[in-house]
Amino acid sequence: MTESSVLLNYSGQLDYKTVDLLLNDLKESGGFTDIDREMGRRVYAIVVECLENIIKYSAKSSGGKEGTVPRISVEKQDEKILIKAGNIIDSDKAAGLVLNLEKINAMDVTALIVRLKEKINKEHEKNEMGAGLGLMLIKLKSGNNIEFNVSLVDERTSYLELK
Question: What does pTM read for this prediction?
Answer without folding.
Answer: 0.89
